[in-house]
């Protein structure tokens, strides 16, 4: 019996795969490499000393999915596969709705056909980005988003909630990640976006490398102590551990369960840039730029539910997150 990891070659999926293998679990990875590279699979094998079946397959291809379920006894799925660039989703909503929604529907249908009813889904704190919600965000807040990417998460959560209500065999965790950053301490796994990064940490890392001239701080006139946006950053290894705790929880808890995975603590853009300077010893020049569309002033979790029901909490602080991100950046640059 094995755990299927969709999107397991990606940033969060690869860390979770490595952690599951290290704990002795059997896994199968499925990925179409639309936003990842085959080398990541070798890194997981090197790190853990274990092998696993891999399928280069697309969730939009039902035949490929059927083959994965026929050839493996899958008891649980951790579903990371999806497109995630907010700006691109505004430009290409059909691509996002098709990939994320149809992919999830195909996956759930294949699970049902094969009697697999346990699912951990990657949702996002972006589902809270409504004018009426103020941080700390709690799981019972109303949901909505400012962009098509975020709406795919809102819709998928609704579909999975309906599914769980229709059949008590389903056990579904809706994991609402805040801002995952950092990398595996070995430097073998991490985040490696193509082109100019949209997200803060990969952008800062490229500035530290000298590949970009300076950090553009999107707005310094928010209602926050230093005027810049506050986010709840979480180390990707803590996030991976949260999935493993969710698998345990689902064993005894049917239904659909939204759960925040965040630290409960917020850092401003300037505080993150300062922490990265401390970790890297490299100065990060900054310029103030206009606010970015769709951004909000503050996003951080009420992390109490995960603590209560998963017995999980984020352990690693901002300095460790920046240190591991920088370590990965340096090692990865040397490999390329
Ligand atoms: P990622 O892009 O690194 O990983 C996603 C993986 O899914 C990639 O390897 C990609 O090739 C694969 N994929 C995409 N569509 C596919 C398809 N149709 N069939 C097969 N494989 C497909 O992203 P990540 O940062 O690891 O995020 C994982 C999940 O977590 C995503 O669903 C994302 O929306 C969600 N999430 C991410 C963040 C974040 O900041 N990284 C925050 C909240 C939620
Ligand atoms: C963080 C802060 C920016 C870049 C996004 C998605 C969200 C989730 C996580 C998937 C904000 C500021 C950023 C830069 C800056 N992903 N910033 N200069 O926007 O909180 O969340 O990733 O689900 O859906 O929206 O993360 O890293 O882009 O921004 O000043 O070059 O850094 O304005 O305050 P965000 P981020």
TrEMBL record:
Q: Which UniProt keywords apply?
A: Carbohydrate metabolism, Galactose metabolism, Isomerase, NAD
What Enzyme Commission number(s) does the record list for this chain?
5.1.3.2
Q: What is this protein called?
A: UDP-glucose 4-epimerase
Q: Where is the NAD-dependent epimerase/dehydratase domain?
A: 3-262
Q: What span is annotated as the signal peptide, if there is one?
A: none
Superkingdom classification of source: Bacteria
**Recorded GO terms, molecular function?**
UDP-glucose 4-epimerase activity
**Species whose genome carries this gene:** uncultured Anaerotruncus sp
Spell out where the chain crosses the membrane: none
**What does this protein need as cofactor?**
NAD(+)
State which pathway it belongs to. Carbohydrate metabolism; galactose metabolism
Q: Single Gene Ontology BP term?
A: galactose metabolic process
- Kindly list the GO CC terms recorded for this protein: cytosol
Spell out the reaction equation it catalyses: UDP-alpha-D-glucose = UDP-alpha-D-galactose
Q: Which proteins does it associate with, and in what oligomeric form?
A: Homodimer.
The record's similarity note reads:
Belongs to the NAD(P)-dependent epimerase/dehydratase family.
């Amino acid at each position: 019996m094995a755990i299927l990891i969709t999107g397991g070659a990606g940033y969060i999926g690869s860390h979770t795969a490595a952690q599951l293998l290290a704990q002795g679990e059997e896994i199968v990875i499925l990925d179409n490499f639309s936003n990842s590279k085959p080398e990541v699979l070798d890194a997981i094998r090197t790190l853990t000393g274990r092998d696993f079946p891999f399928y280069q397959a697309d969730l939009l291809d039902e035949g490929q999915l059927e083959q994965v379920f026929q050839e493996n006894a899958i008891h649980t799925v951790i579903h990371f596969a999806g497109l995630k660039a907010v700006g691109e989703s505004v430009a290409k909503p059909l691509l996002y709705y098709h990939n994320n929604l149809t992919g999830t529907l195909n996956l759930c249908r294949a699970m049902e056909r094969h009697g697999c009813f346990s699912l951990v889904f990657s949702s996002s704190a972006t589902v809270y980005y409504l004018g009426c919600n103020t941080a700390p965000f709690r799981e019972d807040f109303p949901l909505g988003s400012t962009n098509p990417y975020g709406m795919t998460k809102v819709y998928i959560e609704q579909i999975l909630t309906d599914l769980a209500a229709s059949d008590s065999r389903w056990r579904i965790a809706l994991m609402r990640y805040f801002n995952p950053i950092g990398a595996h301490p070995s430097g073998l796994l991490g985040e490696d976006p193509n082109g100019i990064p949209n997200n803060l940490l990969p952008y800062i890392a490229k500035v530290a490398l000298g590949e970009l001239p300076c950090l553009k701080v999107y707005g310094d006139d928010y209602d926050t102590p230093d005027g810049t946006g506050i986010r709840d950053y979480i180390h990707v290894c803590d996030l991976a551990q949260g999935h493993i705790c969710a698998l345990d929880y689902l064993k005894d808890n049917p239904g659909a369960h939204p759960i925040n995975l965040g630290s409960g603590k917020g850092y401003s853009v300037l505080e993150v840039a300062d922490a990265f300077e401390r970790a890297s010893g490299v100065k990060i020049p900054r310029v103030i730029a206009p606010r970015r569309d769709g951004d909000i002033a503050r996003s951080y979790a009420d992390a109490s539910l995960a603590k209560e029901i998963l017995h999980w909490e984020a352990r690693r602080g901002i300095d460790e997150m920046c240190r591991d991100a920088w370590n990965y950046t340096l090692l990865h640059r040397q490999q390329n």
